[in-house]
Design brief:
The protein is of the alpha+beta class. The chain has helices at residues 39-52, 74-84, 116-128, 177-193, 207-214, 255-264, 287-296, 326-336, and strands at residues 20-22, 25-30, 36-38, 57-59, 65-70, 99-101, 141-144, 157-160, 163-166, 169-174, 233-236, 242-247, 252-253, 268-271, 276-282, 310-312, 345-348, 362-367, 370-374.
Amino acid sequence: MQAASGRDAPDRCPGAVQVHAAADGGLARVRLPGGRLTVDGLRTLRAAARDLGDPALELTSRGNVQVRALRPGAEMELAARLSAAGLLPSDTHERVRNIIASPLSGRDGLGAGDVRAVVAAYDAALCADPALAALPGRFLVTVDDGRGDVTPLGGDIGLHGDRLTLAGRLTTARGHADLLLRATAAFLAERAEQGGTAWRLAELTDGPARVAARLEATVDPRAVKNGTGPSAGWTPQTDGRAALTVVVPLGLLTPAQSAALLDAAPEEIIVTPWRTVVVPDVPMAEAEHVETLLTAAGLVTDPGSPWAGVTACAGRPGCAKALADVRADARAAVEAGTAPTGLPVHWVGCERRCGAPKGRHVEMLATADGYQVVA
């Protein structure tokens, strides 16, 4: 059987060891399963970016962090620092640890359960299985606690509560980390049977149905009820503390902003796939101080801010294919009040549309003749 995708080359998603040669230097992507990053981990990333490349950290649409403009050979020093900080548990599997989870799971009481242990167990099992290093770098796992925030993001496999999802569709299979592991292996087996070149489950002929059958399950025709990620601002936690979600303008975390997060976060931050950051477990007595600290650094806590929902690809000068400095143009439009409103807006430098959000949004597409608005 031939692969439906017609791919003729492996994916080239960057990692922390296998970096991408961008126009501005090496580009490293550091996977953060479930988006969780301890303050020590953030401190390590901040220092590495400052010492080895561009001091600003990029947030991605999969809740990961990128370091740009690495000097030639600096990836070895970066990998050593990440490994020492526990951010690189496996050199062989580091590109395939693409796991998005409900950011507030276990804290705000809205989900059906706490998925943090599921993410940790699956990540450990993934790294322990040599065969799973063969996964494409685009393969995505979503672990949704049932509220419907990350299932709509297009994971190849996932959990919605305890229900297995395949390409975002519910199945009759139920379980937790062990089921995710079996589904991952089933994807690889089906991929091999269909030619071994597909990057995503949806590229396989009847991919969800065939993988479900390998697990003695079927695809459920009922649709998942979609939710949304946390809005900017405060969310009360069930333990009496609170979590503050902040918008990172254009997903670019400046040195001043990362320093403010280090001062504000009690133990960890959560990087979300919406290019926001959650600071959880803040004692209520410290809430006003934390919000003042973060807003002073340029992070946004107002859900009605014109920055909410505005994202952009790297653009010039970091990307050789880009036709414009989209970040500068997006910033100018937001500050002038001329950016589109009503829907999320994503600015892109070319027709590859890197980093585009899922769901309805307005696209500002750079062309040789200026920007084309695509609704």
